[in-house]
Amino acid sequence: MNKLLEWLGGFAARRYWLVIITWLVILGGLLALKHEFGGAFVNNYTVPGSSSSNGLNLLNSDYSQQGGYGGQIVFHARHGTVAQQQQAVNQSTANVAKLPHVIKAVSPFASSDTGAVSKNGTIAYANVSWKDNPAGLTTSYLNQLNKAVAPARTAGLAVEYGGGAGQIGQQTSDTTSEIIGLASALVLLIFMFGSFITASVPLVSAIFSVGAGLSVVGLLASVTTFPTTAPTVATLLGLGVAVDYGLFLTARHREQLDSGVDVLESASRAEGTSGAAIVIAGSTVVVAILGLYLSGVPFVGSMGLAAAIVVAITMCAALTLVPAFMGLVKNNVRSLKARARAHRQGISAQQQAKQTAVATAAQHEHSAFARWGRRVARQPWPWGIASVLLLLILAIPLLSINLGQPDNGTNPTTDSSRRAYDYISDGFGQGANGPLTVVVKLPKQSSSADSSLLTSMTKGVAATHGVASVTPASVNNAATVAVFNAVPTTSPQAKATTSLVRDLRDDVLPRYHATTYVTGATAGNVDFTDQISGRMLLLILAVVAIAFVLLTAAFRSVVIATKAAIMNLLSIGAAYGVIVAVFQWGWGASLIGVHTTSPIPAYVPMMVFAIVFGLSMDYEVFLLSRVHESWIATGDAHRSVAIGIGSTARVITTAAGIMVVVFSSFVLNDQSAVKMLAIGMAVAVLIDASIVRMILVPAVMSLLGARAWWMPRWLEPVVPHLHLEGSEAAATAAAAQPGGDRRVASRSRLRLLFVVAG
Fold it and tell me: Which one in 81, 447, 627, 726 has a CA-CA gap of 20 to 30 Å to 518?
C-alpha cells in the first residue's frame, strides 16, 4: 500500500494541473447533475415490521382514506370564536383538499362530533392526510398551502400548521455554519503554520471534497430516501475530517521540507506515510458509520450512508488533491520566516532547510509539549487517576438519560409547528398533538358482531389510564378494517405516553381477540426508539471489535487495542453526559438557542458513538505510532512518551481544535437533534484530544512500559501484518542500538514500525 501511495503522491505533485483540473471537472459535473436530477430529503421514522409500520401498511392498502401521513391546519380566533368564520374555515379546508398529494382534509365543522373545536370556541383544527411524507414537500408547496388557507387569514384568523404539516418546506441551510467553521479553521491553520498559503491547502481540498460528496448524496436521494438532516450531518463530519486529513499530509510535508527534502520527494513520502494513516483511519470512520445499519432502521442507516459517502470522497481528495497543491505551491509551504532567511543568505530554500535540519528534529524532544509528556510520565498514577475521575464525573448525567423523540413543543416559538402545538395544547390538551391510531383487522363475522366488538374495544381503550378521549370507530366499505383514535392525556414525548402505547399493545387490546395495531406518528416514534435502543449494544460491540482488530494488527499488541477501546468508551461516555446535562437537564441550553428540555433521540447517541469512535482512530494511530517509533529507538518508556507527544501534540491539538470549531458551528442549526450531534461530537473530540491523548494515554503508557507492546504468541501468526508507514530498515537499525529491547527489535524485523505524520 505504501508504494502505491508514494507513487500516487508523486504523480499528483508532478502533474498538479492535471489533477486540479480533473477535480474541477468532477465537482462541476456533480453539481450540475445534482441541480438537474437531485432528489428530496425526507424524514421517515418507520421501523419495518413494527406494529406502527404494519398498521400503516394495512390502512394504506385496505382503507386508504384513513391512511397516509397526517397533519393539522390549526385556526385561532383572536377575537370572538372560530365558528363565526365557519365559511372561511370550510373554504380553506376545501382548498387544501384540492392540493396535490392530499388524500383528504376534514373541516372542524364537517359534523357535530369531530371534536376538533375547543370548548371555548377560540381554537379549531382541520385534519389533513398526505400520500407522501409532508417533510419532503418543498417551499413551493408551502406557498400553495398558504394560498389555500388565505380565506381564513383574510377573515382575521391565525392559521398555523401542526404535526406533519409543520414540516412542509422546512429544509434548512447550513451556509452560515459552514462559513464560520471554515473561517475558524483557517485562523487555526494560519496560527499553526504561520503561512496563509500552507493553511489554504487543507481548506481548499475540504471545499472540493465536501461539495462533491454532498452532490453525490443529492443524486442518490432521487433513488433512495435520506433524512432531512443527512446533508447537515454529512457536511458537519465531512468538513471536520477533510480539513484534518489535509492538515496531517501538509504538516508531514512541511516538516520534511524543513529538513531539506525535495518538494516532489517530500510529497511522495508524505503520501506514503501520513497517507497510509489516513486510509486506515478514514476507512475505520466509514466502516463505523456504516455500522449504523445494524440499527435495523432505514432512517439511521441512510444517515450513516450519507456521511460515509462524504468521508470516503474526502479521503480520495486528501490523497490526490492535497499533493497536487503541494506540487503547485512548491517551497511556499514553508513558513515566511524560513523563506526570508534563505533569501537574506542568498541560498535556496532547500539549502537553508538542510542547514537547520538537526535543530528542527531536536525540537520534538525539547518542546513544551514534550516537557508536559515527561511531567505526566514521571507521576503517572496521580495524573491517570485524576483524568479517569474527571471523565466519570462528566458521564454521571448519562445515568438518567431519557431516550425518545422530541415533539413539536420543543421547536422555537418562531416555527409554525410550535405555535400550532401550543394552540392545540391550550384548546384540547397536550395529548391531542399526538393521537394514537388503533387499527383493527376485523374477523370474518356478522356486522352486528363487528359493531359489538368495536364498541367494547373503544370503551375499554377509553377506560385505560392515560387516555383522555376516544373517537368513534370507522369501518371500510369491505368491513375488513376499522380504525379509531385514542387521545393521550400527556404530550407525545412524555414517558407516560410511551407507557400508554405499550399498555394498549400488551394488555388492553389483546383482550378482544382481534388483530390490532397501534400506529400514528407517536406510536411510530416509540417503535423507533425501542428498535434503536435494542440494537445499541450490538453497534457498540461491532465498532469496538473492528477497532480492536485494526489496532492489534497495526501495533501487534492486544494491550494497545484494549487500552484504546476503554479510553474511547470513557471519552464518549463523558460526551453523552454533557448532551444529557445540556438538552435534558437544560444546563446552559439557552446559550445555544434551546429554550425547552427534551428527551434525547435514540439515534443521536448511536451516531455520536459510531462517528467519534472512528475519528478517535486518527489521534490514536497518530500519537502511538510516534511513541512506538521512539520506544524502538530508545527502549525508554518515559522518554518515548515525551518524544511522541512532542512530535505530534501540535498537530493533534490543531486538528482537534478545527474539529471542535467546525462541529460547534452547527449549533446554529434550528433542529435540536443537529445541535445535540454538534455538541456531542465537539465535546467528545475535545476530551479525546486533551484529557485522553495528553494525560491519560501518556500516564498509562508510562505505567505499562514494555508490557504495552505485548501480544500472546499464539496470536502472532493469526493477526495480519500491517505496515502503515515507516522504514523496516530504519526500525531494525534503531532497535539494534544499545539499550533497545530485544523483543522489540525482533518485532521490528517483522515490519512493525508505524511512523505517522508529525
Answer: 447
